[in-house]
Amino acid sequence: MTRTAPLISPAAPIRSSETNGELLRQLLWLSVPVLAENMLHMLVGLNDTYLANHVNLAGGASPAELGAQRAAAASAVGAITYILWFIGLFAGSIGTGSTALIARASGARHRRMANSICGQSISAALVGGGLLGLLMFFTAVPTADLTRLHGPAYTFALSYLRMLSPAVPFLVIMFIANACLRGAGDSFTPAVSMIIVDVVNMAFSWGLTYGFVFHGKRILPQLGFDGIAIGTVIAYIVGGVVQLIVLIHGRGGIRLHLHRLAPHWQNIRRLLRIGLPSGMENLMQWLANFGVLIVINQSDASNISSAAHINSIRIEALSYMAGFAIATGAATMVGQSLGMRDPHRATRSAYLAYAVGGATMTLCGVLFVFFGWLPARWMSGDSQIAALTTRCLFITGMIQTGFAAAIVFGGALRGAGDTFMVMVINLASILLLRLIGVLIVGLWLKLGLAAIWMVLAGELFVRGIMMFARFRHGGWRMIEV
Fold it and tell me: In whole angstroms, what is the distance from residue 330 CA to residue 260 CA?
């Protein structure tokens, strides 16, 4: 059985002579491009939600009717975000294995192995993405039914799903190509590619929602809500094509060769051995969060709580997108360090990542607590939605330090290939605390959105403690991939 690196021998450890400053520079080199990408991606989400909250949907409607339609549009955009997250689960389950294996192979200077894993990953993206796109189109109605949206919100969500389905294969290719490149230590190329995608997304979504006229000549039609969906479709197609071209030309020490697309069952098994636990973990996390959305939508015929929930998540992304960027850099450095047979370097890299990520997310939390009302009012002109969004931001602001531990140490463990224990921790936390807690306070006690967010915040803090405890245990150092 081919291995990217032998088991680390406790009797003969290898220690890097790099200083903490040198490791920090490497971490930032890997993380800052991802941060730029994530922040722009967050702006796309804010842009879509803003457009939904402000789009003109019906001519001659009264202010009350227009406000109700806008709340419905924002709720529909939020529901589609969860559907896109579900698609990302498939890409993420493969991408986690791709990043870990390519990072190990790159650390061991095994380029042929890295290229082989890249080829198998893209093959899975082509096949799986195509099947997911077909599934989305033909199951659009039952999928929209699952959201428990009411009236116009349901109609908007159904239309969005059908228009989005042709872009799904390109979205999956884009995600997995990015994971391959990051595993090779190249976070710059995925960041540039995603920045292009996000700029295209915002430009076309805005232009097609309101229409675009240049020198008296209409360039883009005014499509209203449909413009948000079509802009997203155009952007994902561009992203998938760009990333395929990048891999075929080669970047970051890896290259997509056509003969590597043929099935190589041994490497496929290795990808699945790492990726499936992560995929199962993410699936359960998605089910729990989608369950939260259903609870909120089902108990909120006015769509006020639904809109406030989505607005709060969009604003909170300012914090956790930074954490995910640092976690991505940590995963690559931990994987490469173990490929070099240097677990001490891996440990130092993870702690440095938490120092940076934890400080950044804690600062964001302070801003949410004291100034959350500012973005809440910007996102929606409805006073009820804005007030409820402010309360949710206050709650989540209090636990950003623990949330950072869950993200950063979880990323470090995944980079080491310790995806099984990450799955166990996440499933225990999500099922026993998050899902059950939300069902109790949301469906049984009917305490409202703020109480639901208190449950969500508490669960994230506890999960952070458990991730840190697993990392301190150190069993990840002996994981073989």
Answer: 28
pLDDT (0 to 100) of residue 3: 41
172: left (phi over 0), alpha (psi -120 to 50) or beta: alpha
For the cut 50, the answer to whether the pLDDT of residue 11 exceeds it is no
With beta carbons less than 8 A apart as the criterion, state whether 103 and 183 touch.
yes
- Residue 440's φ and ψ, nearest 5 degrees, are -70, -55
Q: Name the token pair of 9.
A: 């021998």
Binning pLDDT at 50, 70 and 90, where does residue 473 land? Answer: very high
> Which residues, listed in sequence order, are joined to residue 212 by a DSSP beta bridge?
220
| 57: amino acid identity, one letter | L
Give the closest residue to 159 by CA, choosing from 66, 65, 57, 228.
228
CA dist 135 and 316 (Å) reads: 31
Q: How far apart are CA 96 and CA 15, in angstroms?
A: 26
261 pLDDT exceeds 90? no
The answer to whether 143 and 86 are in contact (CB under 8 A) is no
Identify the CA nearest to 93 among candidates 243, 263, 281. 281
Exposed/middle/buried for 216, CB within 10 Å: 0-12, 13-18, 19+?
A: exposed
| Nearest alpha carbon to residue 100 among 281, 271, 256 | 271
Is the full-model pTM beyond 0.85? no
For 364-406, write each residue's pLDDT tens digit: 999 999 999 999 998 888 889 999 999 999 999 999 999 999 9
3-state secondary structure string across the chain: CCCCCCCCCCCCCCCCCCCHHHHHHHHHHHHHHHHHHHHHHHHHHHHHHHHHHHCCCCCCCCHHHHHHHHHHHHHHHHHHHHHHHHHHHHHHHHHHHHHHHHHHHHHCCCHHHHHHHHHHHHHHHHHHHHHHHHHHHHCHHHHHHHCCCCHHHHHHHHHHHHHHHHHHHHHHHHHHHHHHHHHCCCCHHHHHHHHHHHHHHHHHHHHHHHCEEECCEEEECCCCHHHHHHHHHHHHHHHHHHHHHHHHHCECCECCCHHHHCCCHHHHHHHHHHHHHHHHHHHHHHHHHHHHHHHHHHCCCCCHHHHHHHHHHHHHHHHHHHHHHHHHHHHHHHHHHHHCCCHHHHHHHHHHHHHHHHHHHHHHHHHHHHHCHHHHHHHCCCHHHHHHHHHHHHHHHCCHHHHHHHHHHHHHHHHCCCHHHHHHHHHHHHHHHHHHHHHHHHHHCCCCHHHHHHHHHHHHHHHHHHHHHHHHHCHHHHCCC
Q: Amino acid letter at 314?
A: R
Write down the pLDDT at residue 481. 62
How far is it, in rounded angstroms, from Cα 458 to Cα 464? Answer: 10
pLDDT of residue 16: 62
